[in-house]
Amino acid sequence: MNLLKFFIVSIIIVFIVSCTDTKKEIRREINSGIKENSNSRFKEAIVHYQAAIDMDSQNAEAYLNMGNSYFNLRNFDKSMECANKAIELNNTYGVAYKLRAELYKKIFKNNTKACENYLMAEKYGVKNLQDYTKHCR
């Protein structure tokens, strides 16, 4: 019986450690992507965000950051896909609504959709959007 308990505890420990390592690796990939993005190496940043998504397909932060990189590469359709996915994964992710609002306003010229998204961004904590939302109410 003691051998069985030891075996079960060992499996649980291995599982916990591997989950922790995966979370750390995801964080490293996202941070590396942010660094590449801040140095205007947008394609390299996307590689890091995709690596994070490959490890955790439910990571809204990775999708949002990848959307920002695609925006900077002027690939606006991919940027919108990423913003939509980030919101699908976390419907209270204010910054993702802001990205989507920027795309609707500046790229797709849809002020109604832009207002809807600016208001959602503001609702979920994005500050200093008064210049955008004052015409939306």
Can you tag this structure with a few keywords?
137 residues, mainly alpha, Serine Threonine Protein Phosphatase 5, Tetratricopeptide repeat, 7 helices
Report the β-strand fraction as a percent range: under 5%
The end-to-end span amounts to 68 Å
Helix content range: over 70%
Q: For the record, what is the CATH homologous superfamily label of the largest domain? A: Tetratricopeptide repeat domain
CATH architecture of the largest domain: Alpha Horseshoe
Shape: globular
CATH C-level class of the largest domain: Mainly Alpha
Tally of contiguous helical segments: 7
Total tally of structural domains: 2
Number of strands: 0
CATH topology title of the largest domain = Serine Threonine Protein Phosphatase 5, Tetratricopeptide repeat
| Biggest sheet character | none
Helix vs. strand class: mainly alpha
